[in-house]
From TrEMBL:
It comes from Flagellimonas marina. The keyword Transferase applies. It is an enzyme of class 2 (transferase). Residues 223-395 form the Glycosyl transferase family domain. It comes from the Bacteria. This is Glycosyltransferase family 4 protein. Its EC number is 2.4.-.-. GO terms for molecular function: glycosyltransferase activity. Keywords: Glycosyltransferase, Transferase.
Amino acid sequence: MKVLWITNTVFPDLAVAIGQKPPVVGGWMYGLAKSLSESKNIKLYVATTRNAVKDDEKTLNNITYFHLLGQKSMNQYDPSLEAKWRNIADKIKPDIVHIHGTEYAHGLALMNACPKLNYTISIQGLISVYSRYFLANLSPKDLRKSLSLRDVLKGQTLKQEEQEFFKRGKDIELNYLSKVEHVIGRTQWDNAHCKIVNPKVKYHFCNESLRDSFYYAKLWEPKDNGAPVLFLSQASRPLKGLHQVLHAIYLLKDQYPNIQLRIAGGNIVRSESLKQRLSISGYGKYIRGLISKYEIEDQITFTGPLDEEGMINEYVGSDMFICPSSIENSPNSLGEAQLLGVPVIASYVGGVSDMLSHEETGLLYRFEEVEMLAIYIKRLLEDKSLALKLGRNGHEAAKIRHNRQTNLEQLLSIYRSIA
């Protein structure tokens, strides 16, 4: 069976081969692709337009990659890709085309160019829905405070980003879902939204596998001394909920004056130099203002981009992982934390409740209830036995949910049923 994947990232092997830096996102796909490429009777092809400087084709470790040059923005539909997709389809004659995600338009050009191929789409997030929650309870006053020179000049204020999410969802994502006959998802939430858009779509359930190192790393253990450490996996946009965690830290400040918050990714509040002050994003400006208002400058650390090992060290070095988003489908960061046995707190949004059972494998709270978040942080810091129980229960649940062999067999079964 010939399987063509359409992805939003350049896979690490290809990135190295063409002299680009390997990505730190999308890691769940790479192990699955490796397993598929080693499967009997499967020939895997992977195509993307991300970061392409020319049309290229390379076969590496039994996977054939197509790197296609298109428009600079993957957010916009590029009709010039249609002829390129037809050439690739004629060349390899795929039995299945598997499009990973509905956020970008390059796969849509393939569907329009070759409508008779067998398509399935994996649901990652759903930006047509995410746009409703993009501002994550920020008030009009907050939005005015967040206006930065960079965002005004670039036309990237938070309100404009919200509108751009909505437009992409309407023009790209809903177009995908209305055309496709098969989708692959993993939560009741993504099932419901797909069926509302396209009542005729056939929904296939398949969990995702995670990055290699998380299956073999040493499990989390409770910490006995030192300042409490909370860990977040990202915080670049309001919908990831960093501001809510800062509110909760402020509520706990008198009881835990040395509490530390560590955030994976670039420093969105850096403003030491004039250049940094001029280039800060609106959300970064808002977060910087909160940190200053709450006088917690010494308690917030942005780690910079992290590879697998770096993420594992942060997870297991913390007292807990928090997923405070205003909306999520099934965040892989939550699965990674659980697989490592880290106790987790998550907002009760989207498909998160399919991954986490309250008081059994983690703690759930309503996104806007920062008081509940603060109390749950306090509970895990004070009750080490509860933290350990939730972490170990989460680990056992994650081992089943993210079992690589089970998920591979399920995906192959889906492919066979579609083909």
